[in-house]
TrEMBL record:
One of its GO terms (molecular function) is iron-sulfur cluster binding. GO terms for biological process: iron-sulfur cluster assembly. This is Nitrogen fixation protein NifU. It comes from Granulicatella balaenopterae. Transmembrane segments: none annotated.
Length: 148
């Protein structure tokens, strides 16, 4: 497949996640851990909700908020990638994602569609947009571990 066709396919997947985000919504359950994060440089806001089972697996993940197409697509892709993963696996994925969008060579296979956001590294102003949901994930897990 020609490079331009491959780039176009990547753009289409990103636009699909942005236009039709997966796992978007709010869980009305006080037992679900909720965290809100924002990117003050562009106004993106995410509310992330995680349910971690007794065995340390993420059994439910939802997000809501508003943001640019990169921020929304990244959040959608992240929710699909981390669902049913252990907390440690999710944290490792967050680290891999962060390194990837900063232009480092990584094994991005576990990231699923989120690996398609590697091109963000060419646009430093968009890195914070792409990592917003992943940073919220890290903070949410950190807070839940403190409370356990």
């Amino acid at each position: 497949m020609a490079l331009s066709k491959l780039d176009n396919l990547y753009r289409q997947v990103i636009l699909d996640h942005s236009s039709h985000p997966r796992n978007k919504g709010i869980v009305n359950d006080p037992a679900v851990h909720t965290i809100e994060f924002n990117n003050p440089t562009c106004g993106d806001v995410i509310q992330l909700q995680l349910t971690i089972d007794q065995d340390g697996r993420i059994s439910n993940v939802k997000f809501d908020g508003h943001g640019c197409s990169i921020s929304t697509a990244s959040a959608s892709m992240m929710t699909l990638a981390i669902l049913n993963k252990t907390v440690d696996e999710a944290l490792e994925m967050a680290e891999t994602f962060s390194q990837m969008v900063q232009g480092q060579e990584v094994d991005d296979e576990a990231l699923g569609d989120a690996a398609l956001l590697s091109g963000v590294s060419k646009f430093p102003a968009r890195i914070k947009c792409a990592t917003l949901a992943w940073k919220a994930l890290e903070r949410s897990i950190e807070e839940q571990r403190k409370n356990d």
